[in-house]
Amino acid sequence: MLIQKELKIYSFIAFIVIVTGCNFQQPDYVKVITATELNQLMQKEDIVLIDVHTPEQRHIKGTDLFIPYNEIEKYQDKLPKDKSTAIYLYCEGGPMGNAAARSLYELGYHNLTNLRGGEGAWRESNLPLE
């Protein structure tokens, strides 16, 4: 009987781990873009591209600003005044870009895009760095 209870408990724990592990979703306030898509967009349009990685790293060629992901509010004066302006973010791999997007969203910016895979994906695609 004790073994059946333990088995049920372990089964329940495994179920919870599987369900919660599958629940990660990209936040709905930020879109994602691939390195190739971002490069194509940069060839056609003048965009606002912000590196948010800490510590500072090599930048994607064409980066407009470096603002640490955890200091967005401190640099509000550097951000576009029009909060509907499209802002493209990147870090080394993606998570700091998502964190920066959350801060920007909380400041009223709603046209946010993060580079999937960050600067690492850009580099793997052999695209130019500064």
From TrEMBL:
CDD domains on file: RHOD
Cite the GO molecular-function annotations of the record.
transferase activity
The UniProt record lists the keyword Transferase: yes
The family database entries (Pfam families) matched by this protein are listed as:
Rhodanese
Write down the Gene3D superfamilies for this protein, in alphabetical order. Rhodanese-like domain
Q: This protein's superkingdom?
A: Bacteria
- What keywords does the record list, in alphabetical order? Transferase
Domain Rhodanese spans what residues?
A: 43-130
How is this protein named in the record?
Answer: Sulfurtransferase
Organism whose genome encodes this protein: Candidatus Methylumidiphilus alinenensis
